[in-house]
Prior knowledge:
The protein is 45% helix and 0% strand. The protein contains seven helices and no strands. Helix 5 (108-122) runs antiparallel to helix 7. 8% of the residues are buried.
Amino acid sequence: xxxxxxxxxxxxxxxxxxxxxxxxxxxxxxxxxxxxxxxxxxxxxxxxxxxxxxxxxxxxxxxxxxxxxxxxxxxxxxxxxxxxxxxxxxxxxxxxxxxxxxxxxxxxxxxxxxxxxxxxxxxxxxxxxxxxxxxxxxxxxxxxxxxxxxxxxxx
Length: 155
């Protein structure tokens, strides 16, 4: 039976125009009639057609969003992205900058440079295993990762 199924070809004895006509005629779900689907619960037999999909135009930005899935995008539409100066420093950001030796906002390059310098100073191989220095290293790494996650330093 498997050999028969492998070798079966429905179109083997048809001409090209017959194949084309068969494909056009059976342009439904496997040659079977389908049912329409609608939002108000009405059903009925569908007539096979070539294209029943509605083409919707969202180029003007109007999207029907009853569940507010795209609310953030619609609120920020037309606004320019935040720059570094507009990002507010919260207390955790200030503490992280203080750990790296800064008192206010600084450029990302300075943060990265200070991080590298402090890591070299407090690395266990450089300080002979001093426990206080290792704790300071952990604080420096945590502060830098926090600033990186908030966008103050490029990833």
